[in-house]
Amino acid sequence: MKLRLVCQPSVPASVSPFRLLDEQNREVSWANAFLDAQCIRQLSQRSLRADAFDLLHFARWSLTSTLRTDGVMSGANTSRAVERKRKQLKKDRAAVENAVEYVWSNGPVEGHVNRLKTLKRQMYGQAEFELLRARVLPFPVRPLHQE
Q1: Cα of 87 vs its chain's centroid, Å
Q2: Would the pTM of this model clear 0.85, i.e. be above it?
């Protein structure tokens, strides 16, 4: 099965302009559902395009690995680098399937952690913990111990 990626610039805002199609011009539903979900999250066009190409490569790899396990292709003539890449993608397969299936994302949490780490780096060696607390927390905090 041959897969290809097409760009349809004149689509509604809730649908990704990048679509993954098979050889009969049918949409690959799981990949396009993921791209649509990313579009709803308002990812940039560049990020959507990168995700679409990643899904295209993943789908092609998935088809190839299926053929390889069926005995159609032998693994004897593949190089070590290809084997390493195949193993890495095989480990990531569950993560990609979960990203397609579920709408949950840990992106907001990672954003807060990134913000905190940036503040910590900026303040390294310049201030004590109370100033860090004042910059991190949006409101004043009462001291834990009364003097």
Answers
A1: 18
A2: no
Distances (CA, A) of 20 to 2, 7, 11, 118, 137: 11, 9, 15, 37, 44
98/90 Cα distance (integer angstroms):
14
C-alpha distances in angstroms, 91 versus 3, 58, 86, 88, 103? 22, 12, 9, 5, 21
Q: pLDDT tens digits for 4-24?
A: 999 988 888 888 999 989 888
